[in-house]
Amino acid sequence: MFETFLFHVPSIARHEQAPFAEERFRYLVDCAERGDTPRTLQNKRTGIYWAARILGPNAGQVITAEQFQAAARQWAVDHGCHRANSLMQLIRVGRPWLRYLGWWEDPVSHTPFQAELDRFCDWMKSERGLTATTVDQWRRRTRTFLQWYQSAGRSLSELGPSDIDQYLVHGINSRCRITVATYLTALRAFIRYAGSQGWCTPRLADTIQRPRIYKDEQLPSGPDWSHVRLLLQDLDTGHPRDVRNYAIVLLLAVYGMRVGEVIRLRLTDLDWERELVRLPCAKRRAPQRSPLVAEVGNSIARYLRDVRPKSAVPEVFLSMRPPYRRLSQGALYSVIGPRMRRLGCALAHFGPHALRHACAQRLLARGLSLKEIGDHLGHRSPASTQIYAKVDLPALREVAAFDLGGVQ
Questions:
Q1: Residue of 24, 188, 326, 356 marked catalytic
Q2: Which of 87, 206, 336, 365 is deepest in the core (most CB within 10 A)?
Q3: Please, is 203 exposed, middle or buried when counting C-beta atoms within 10 Å of its C-beta (0-12, 13-18, 19+)?
Q4: Among 27, 149, 303, 388, which one carries the catalytic annotation?
Q5: Active-site annotation holder among 44, 141, 376, 379
Q6: Is 79 a catalytic site residue?
Q7: Could you confirm whether 366 is annotated as catalytic?
Q8: pTM of the predicted model, to two decimals?
Q9: Is the dihedral of CA 321, 322, 325, 328 positive or negative?
């Protein structure tokens, strides 16, 4: 059975005699068909071999994370293996195999007031017409409050202004002023909807006051374009993960795409014949067609040809480990932030959104108007682009050099 992957007779016998031989072989065949490299297959073969031995032949076909971790720790104690890294690697390799077999049971995260939260989200989509990104963000912000409020052991009908004050003090007080404002915006919308449904006092939402946020109070926080080039040079290693990340950085820096737009970019959005890319603009609620810049197109084509796993998932950028799925927002932060810090960039923020600011500042330096920059970035309103005028140093110098013409 394992002759496909092994050549040494004792190794073949050892793998075939271990528990769940057929299930392990079937998983390895599937991984090979999806395009896993020989080195990856070797790591998986070894990992699931030990996972099968740890679980034993009498393991049930429903295995929770706690059961697997407990069995792995007990095995490590019995065999004198106390290396935490090896244990975690074993769990990381064994979990996808168990998921493939349908034996893995993910822990159920209980969200308090789930029915009310679902109805609120449906209302935001159908009645308010909010974008999927906004709905998801407000869902997470509201869920944070409901999880905090659950500890009080009371119903929504008992919710009062003092609870909101306590949430501000103990729940989100450590966050910055702008973040607190976003949390309270979502909370106020939820409580206003809850009041309309009779779940709580109808006027309770009017008692929620956000911190004052001044228009254009912040400066753009993007890196200089020379730092963007350094970042691209740092990613130009040929490693499969860096090939993917190189294309991602180009999309963020050249087109100024938002994080959600990058992770939602689909294969069908790439028109190779006409050299166009359809950008899924989150704020405009309609895709925007742009020319496919040669360097960006070549980097994406290289990723699709040499790196991207074989998968039916429609999104362009996928995780590098099975089960292959589209990237999360957190994955993009891990791509940009650590490298920018290592390159010594002095920035207020190191996330991928900083590259969107870098794109806007570069276009402004090249003489494009705010209207043109706004169209490129997918802004719905010119007011969203005005903040970049604050960093247009040549224009500011012209204002500073204004001749008063002898006026006393």
A1: 356
A2: 336
A3: exposed
A4: 388
A5: 379
A6: no
A7: no
A8: 0.60
A9: negative
The confidence score (pLDDT) of residue 138 equals: 92
* DSSP states along 99-144: HHHT-EEPPP-PPTTHHHHHHHHHHIIIII---HHHHHHHHHHHHH
CATH 1.25.10.10 fits 225-396, yes or no: no
378 neighbors 281 (Cβ within 8 angstroms)? yes
For the chain, what's the residue count?
408
Q: Is 289 a catalytic residue?
A: no
Distances in whole angstroms, Cα of residue 366 to Cα of each of 88, 183, 225, 355: 49, 37, 12, 17
Known active-site residue 27: no
Is residue 258 among the annotated active site residues?
yes
Pick the CATH number of 114-207 from 1.10.150.130, 3.20.20.60, 1.10.10.10, 3.40.190.10: 1.10.150.130
CA 52 to CA 59: how far, in whole Å? 9
Q: Which of 141, 143, 244, 258 is catalytic?
A: 258
Mean pLDDT, each 10-residue run in order, the chain (408 residues): 79 87 88 78 85 79 74 68 64 82 72 90 91 86 91 88 88 79 92 94 90 65 80 89 92 86 90 87 68 92 92 89 80 80 72 81 76 68 59 49 50
Q: Assess whether 255 carries a catalytic annotation.
A: no
Set 283, 302, 321, 333: catalytic member = 283
Nearest to 157 by CA among 187, 190, 198: 198
* Per-domain boundaries in the chain: 2-105, 114-207, 225-396
